[in-house]
């Protein structure tokens, strides 16, 4: 069956613009081509426009236009190629070099580009990345970022109220934070994924769930509950993105597998304060799960995730097949629920976990076993 999302939603045009040397191609290579920061030194200047069709979440294609920032190219974009470059744009990302000695000239150039974007793609979303912040002294970063952001906003015309600013560097997790927000605006069913995550978090009593795209390690959606909302490390999601990306690089180095294809089956951390694991949820995503320190809850959560995996697979962009009669996320999770509201885990004699079958059959089979073996069932609420 064809995907439920129309083709126009699965192919999104993204402009990446800014002055030559601002760092556009470097950040693109780190996020989408699995480069590390030290690798980008060998990248040359972009000539004219480099087109990249990047797959994300399965069949969502980011039609990324990396536009060279030399004056001659920009003049050509604004005149001879105006409609071609600025038409049908979903997102424009404009990169400013924080150390540029010609900031006012950069702003004028930005203003001309904004005017063209307003003419041909008035509904586009604009992001501004003030880049290379690692070159600014710590005590000056906040003030300088705010000053530059306000000047840029004043020249953003109709986009001034909705433009989003990020301070970024290729040497820390700030790059992942910015691109996570950018990608979020391109996923057509992001809110539905978040609702599914919220239901799952309540079902397994998780403190936090974070859904990562497997190739880029960017955050797709997250849910935080209870006391975890007071966690002082606000950049923990992007830090984990950076850790996962570095781990992929390490695996690629030691196994000879391309970095884009290097993945792991599962990672587990168990302590006296929390339990944590990352597992594959769908073909295109990994799920990070933060739980209270309970072995019983840990094991039950892993079984619950296995049972609802097929429902999340339906939400992958460009899914190859859909169930003929889709149910709401809550209805599906209730169907797989055990006696105390969570999916049951039956303790077989050999200790093996239930094998994966087709989604509905697996849920019905587990529910029946749970009813027949109440004294053998482990649940997350126990």
Automatic annotation (TrEMBL):
Compositionally skewed regions (Acidic residues) per UniProt: 346-355
GO CC annotation, single: Gtr1-Gtr2 GTPase complex
GO molecular function ontology, one term from the record: GTP binding
Keywords noted in UniProt: GTP-binding, Nucleotide-binding
Chain segments carrying region Disordered: 327-382
GO biological process, one term: cellular response to starvation
UniProt xrefs under SUPFAM superfamilies: P-loop containing nucleoside triphosphate hydrolases
Tagged with keyword Ribonucleoprotein: no
Pfam families per the UniProt record, alphabetical: Gtr1_RagA
Superkingdom in the source lineage: Eukaryota
CDD domains per the UniProt record, alphabetical: RagA_like
Keyword Secreted appears in the UniProt entry: no
Family (UniProt): Belongs to the GTR/RAG GTP-binding protein family.
Function: GTPase involved in activation of the TORC1 signaling pathway, which promotes growth and represses autophagy in nutrient-rich conditions.
Subunit structure: Component of the GSE complex.
Protein name, per record: GTP-binding protein
């Amino acid at each position: 069956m064809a995907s439920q999302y129309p083709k126009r939603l699965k192919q999104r045009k993204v402009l990446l613009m800014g002055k030559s040397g601002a760092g556009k191609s470097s950040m693109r290579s780190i996020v989408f081509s699995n480069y590390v920061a030290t690798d980008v030194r060998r990248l040359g200047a972009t000539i004219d426009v480099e087109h990249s069709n990047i797959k994300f979440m399965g069949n969502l294609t980011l039609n990324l236009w990396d536009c060279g920032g030399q004056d001659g190219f920009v003049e050509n974009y604004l005149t001879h190629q105006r409609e071609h470059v600025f038409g049908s744009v979903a997102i424009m990302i404009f990169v400013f070099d924080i150390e540029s000695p010609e900031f006012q000239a950069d702003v004028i150039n930005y203003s001309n580009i904004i005017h063209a974007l307003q003419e041909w793609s008035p509904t586009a979303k604009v992001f501004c990345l003030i880049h290379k912040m690692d070159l600014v002294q710590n005590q000056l970063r906040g003030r300088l970022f705010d000053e530059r952001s306000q000047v840029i906003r004043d020249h953003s015309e109709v986009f001034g109220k909705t433009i989003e600013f990020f301070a970024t560097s290729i040497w820390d997790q700030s790059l992942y934070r910015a691109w996570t927000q950018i990608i979020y605006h391109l996923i057509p069913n992001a809110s539905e994924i978040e609702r599914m995550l919220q239901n799952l978090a309540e079902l397994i009593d998780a403190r936090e769930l974070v859904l990562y795209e497997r190739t880029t390690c960017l955050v797709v959606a997250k849910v935080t509950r209870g006391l975890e909302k007071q966690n002082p490390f606000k950049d923990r999601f992007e830090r984990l993105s950076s850790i996962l990306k570095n781990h992929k690089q390490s695996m690629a180095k030691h196994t000879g597998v391309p970095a884009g294809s290097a993945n792991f089956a599962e990672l587990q951390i168990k302590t006296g304060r929390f339990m944590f694991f990352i597992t594959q949820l769908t073909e295109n995503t990994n799920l990070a799960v933060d739980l209270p320190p309970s072995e019983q809850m840990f094991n039950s959560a892993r079984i619950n995730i296995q049972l609802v995996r097929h429902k999340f697979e339906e939400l992958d962009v460009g899914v190859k097949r859909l169930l003929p009669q889709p149910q709401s996320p809550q209805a599906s999770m209730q169907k797989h629920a055990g006696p105390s509201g969570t999916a049951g885990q039956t303790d077989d004699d050999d200790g093996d976990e239930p094998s994966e079958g087709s989604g509905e059959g697996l849920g019905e089979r587990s529910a029946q076993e749970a009813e027949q073996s109440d004294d053998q069932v482990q649940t997350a609420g126990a």
